[in-house]
What does this fold into?
Amino acid sequence: MPTTRRVVPTLTVHDIDAERDHYVDVLGLVEVMNQGWIVTLAESAGGPQLSLMTRDQTAQVNPDASVEVDDVDAAYAVAVERGLEIVHELRDEPWGVRRFFFRDRTGNVVNVLSHSA
It folds into this structure.
């Protein structure tokens, strides 16, 4: 069974720059990652995080949350075994993560990932 390392809510936005500025100014968050289509904000290194995304770079749907685990392959195997809908197949992404998305029975889309070695 994989171990969860981090959980980050992901909000879909139209204008990352404008929205980032609101979260920075109102909540005091700082930008810790920006790939143009996704930005992650945090209180501090290792503290609570929030991501803002326009459109996922390689998936057909934006996730509602990202969950980093220590073993994404094991998490994928459990998701498939449980019959969860896989909406983005397990794959290595060019920005250094291995991930898949599943949709829960309520309709939430979860990005499950591990950072590549």
